[in-house]
Structure formats: structure tokens, C-alpha cells
Design brief:
Blueprint (H helix, E strand, L loop, with lengths): L2 H20 L1 E3 L3 H19 L5 H23 L13 H9 L10 H23 L10 H31 L3 H7 L1 E3 L6
Antiparallel strand pairs: 1-2
The chain binds protoporphyrin IX containing FE (2 copies).
């Protein structure tokens, strides 16, 4: 083989390697995306329409339901949605931060804490909203006081979540909001 032919072959092999390494990978399946955008829309709606009327209550239960479906899905899913990918770890978070927050294809260890906090608050809002309407708690202020406090905490978490998504999009030079729409991310330097 001549030098130039060898160079051509080498370049072609390199091209194949590069295109395989950066080919898009499926990360968020349809159920994860549907549950995410349902949760986002219902939370945003209830934070604005906060008078506790029938519509507020129905929309709130739909959001909590979307979250429960997502968590049940984690029990059977085999992709990045599975429960094994949702286990937060202090040690993993420390190592991740020490390494300069390297790119993750699934949830990164730091963002995972916020995901669980948001889910816990949505569950708490569903429960406190429900018990505030029970006859047993008629005249009691504390269920709705806790509900209001959790709603404020959720608003703060959502703002941090959005800052996190934008910050990591910039840090990794990757459009994370688009990945939650299409379900795809680029392959390559993925950790998991
Ligand atoms: C994502 C879920 C939810 C969010 C973000 C949310 C948010 C809020 C907010 C911000 C308020 C106003 C609190 C205040 O007085 O300062 C409120 C009130 C209330 N919410 Fe929710 N909520 C959610 C789910 C629910 C659910 C599932 C119920 C079911 C019963 C519910 C029932 C109520 C009631 C009864 C009030 C009291 C209204 C009043 O008397 O002033 N909420 N909610
Ligand atoms: C009230 C609004 C929102 C709530 C409550 C919320 C909540 C969540 C939750 C619970 C997850 C975990 C998803 C899962 O594993 O099932 C998540 C992930 C994500 N959310 Fe949101 N979200 C909201 C708004 C948004 C918006 C407006 C965007 C886009 C600008 C966004 C972008 C993302 C992305 C990109 C991820 C995946 C993060 C990653 O790559 O690890 N979210 N969000």
C-alpha cells in the first residue's frame, strides 16, 4: 500500500470512529419526557392559580400522578430511567465535584438531589392539599400552612433546577432542554 493510500484508509477509519463516538444516543424515553413535561406544566399552573379551587386540585393531583407513574416506571425500565440510575450518593457527588463536574449522559450526581427534592415536595403538596380538605381537619390551619410553605420551597427548587440545566448546558456545551424534548443526547465522552 502506498503512503497516501495508507493515510486515506487511516483517515477513513478515524472518521468512522469519530462518527460512532459522537452518534446520538437515546437517553430519555417517551414516558420520562411525557411525565417531565406534565409535571412541569401542572406545577407551573398550580403555582400561578393558587386559590385551591377545583381546577387547582385536579391539576395538582395530575402532577402528583405523573410523578408516581414515573417512579413506577423506574422499577421496570432498563435505560437511564431505571431506579439504579436514580440512587443519590454523597460519595459520588463529592467525587463528581472534585473531578470538575464531568459530562454525564443520564442524571449527574448533583442534579439527582434536586430531582428527589422536587419529587418529595410534589408528593407533600398532594398529601397536604388532600388532608386540608378532610372533615377531620376542618378549621385547622396547619395543613394549608405546610402546603403553602412547600409550594414556596418548590418554586425555589424549580428556579435552581432551571439554573442548573442552563449552567450545565453551558458547561458541557450541550443543549439539555432539547434532550428533554427529543430524548437524545450526543454520544462520546459519556460517563454512563
Ligand atoms: C404541584 C402541586 C401543587 C402546587 C404547586 C400547589 C400550590 C399551591 C399554592 C402556592 C397555594 C397558595 C398557598 C397560600 O395560601 O399561600 C395553594 C393553596 C391550596 N392548595 Fe395547592 N398546590 C398543589 C397541589 C394541590 C393539591 C393536589 C390539592 C388538593 C386538594 C391542593 C389544594 C390546595 C388548597 C385547598 C389550597 C388553599 C387555598 C386557600 O384556601 O387559600 N393543592 N396551593
Ligand atoms: C415546574 C417546572 C419543572 C419541574 C417541576 C421539573 C422537574 C424535573 C424533574 C423531576 C426531572 C427529573 C426527570 C426524570 O428523571 O424523570 C427533571 C429533569 C430535567 N429537566 Fe426539568 N422540570 C421543570 C422545568 C423544566 C424546564 C422548563 C426545562 C427546560 C428548560 C427542564 C429541563 C430538564 C432537563 C434537561 C432535565 C434532565 C436533566 C439531566 O440531564 O440530568 N425542566 N426536571
Amino acid at each position: 500500500m502506498t503512503d497516501s493510500a495508507a493515510r486515506r484508509d487511516g483517515a477513513a477509519a478515524g472518521a468512522v470512529e469519530v462518527s460512532c463516538a459522537t452518534a446520538p444516543v437515546r437517553v430519555w424515553d417517551a414516558l420520562v419526557r411525557l411525565a417531565h413535561w406534565t409535571l412541569a406544566a401542572t406545577v407551573a399552573f398550580d403555582l400561578v392559580r393558587d386559590d385551591g379551587d377545583r381546577l387547582h386540585r385536579i391539576v395538582g393531583y395530575v402532577g402528583a400522578g405523573a410523578m408516581v407513574v414515573r417512579l413506577l416506571w423506574a422499577l421496570v425500565a432498563r435505560n437511564h430511567a431505571r431506579l439504579a440510575e436514580l440512587k443519590p450518593s454523597l460519595q459520588g457527588t463529592r467525587a463528581y465535584l472534585r473531578a470538575g463536574a464531568p459530562r454525564h449522559v443520564g442524571h449527574d450526581p448533583l442534579g439527582l438531589w434536586m430531582v428527589w427534592l422536587i419529587w418529595a415536595l410534589v408528593l407533600g403538596l398532594g398529601v397536604t392539599g388532600w388532608i386540608s380538605r378532610l372533615d377531620a381537619f376542618w378549621g385547622e390551619d396547619w395543613p394549608i400552612d405546610i402546603h403553602a410553605w412547600m409550594a414556596d420551597a418548590l418554586l425555589a427548587c424549580v428556579l435552581v433546577h432551571l439554573l442548573g440545566v442552563l449552567g450545565m448546558s453551558w458547561h458541557w456545551r450541550e443543549n439539555l432542554p432539547a434532550s428533554m424534548l427529543t430524548g437524545r443526547k450526543r454520544g462520546g465522552d459519556a460517563r454512563r
